[in-house]
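Bench notes, afternoon.
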Amino acid sequence: MDFFRVSFFCSFFRPKTVSYFFCQFICFLDLNKRVYNHVPGECSHIHGIETGAGDMEFFDSTVFFTSGTDLNNATNSSGAIFAWKLEGREIVKTELIGFKEDSQLFNPFGISTFMNILMVTNPLNGNSSYDRVDIFHILPTKTRATFPKIKFIKSVSADVMTGIRGIAAIGKEQFYVANTFKFRSKWAKDAEWLLGLNTGAILYFNGKKIEIAVKDISTPTGLAYDRHKRQLFVGSYSAQKIYVYRANFGNLTKVNEINLQVSPYFISLDPITASLLVAVQPLKFRNIIYETRPWNYFTPSQILQIKKLKSKWSITQLYANDGATISAATTALTIFLPEKPPQLLIGNLRTGILSCDLTSV
């Protein structure tokens, strides 16, 4: 039974009855859906990555990505930032100058850049009272073939950073960050997204202090900032939507929303076409099982491209897989290589990066 048939079936029940809520809960967990494999071209795994690629960012012919993230226990993290130089196709662990990894937990997840400034979120789970954002400076290299080093600038934390995920850098020290969860314990976090509670928030750091820009959002995850239109895109995992805000620093005004009918994770913005690339979770119930048994189970992955037309949003499926090739994709990025078709890069927390030719979109 597909999504529309179940939704139609649910409409026969009276609101606020047990049958109605049961039917809505089935739809919320995506028990009424299935995923059909679709690829945009030839796909292959990128070698040299063994600890996942939770989020990716492109800067000056280099793809930076976070790796080794553990969202259940930060002390188990082998957290690092890797750099992939597209010219040589080589991947190396980035040297973090001035950052004492041995003296503090490093569990990087969301990543964003502003010019030569790189920022990462650090969800520290129950190992700290609250989470942290680390800010680095990407040092210039002598040649394009040289791997960049990044120098630690500062860390930002506050008591309202209780469950951060995505980040959007908008200045050298200014950023928006998605506070996905209000509570620190794993069971409380599971309840927040499983029940679709409006306990999340978007936080804004003005260079001096953290403030709440928007509150009462259901599990916000990925963020993307359009510097030309001054718009912030916010993915809501439980609501299965992307909210569009007019961004005036700490003041966010919602101007639109995009209904996806799947749960978005991280979002990337193409600065040339202004289209969005979104990694989504099509089946929530399978993702729950996968999070508890990632090595014995798999869950589907799906990548959507979203373009703004004159009066509506155009949504195109670029990639879909039942999870056998790549499970629980969290991020996607498009790159362009000489004498090759455009490449779609897909990352997840545990197995690395899948690269696909964009030839049949």
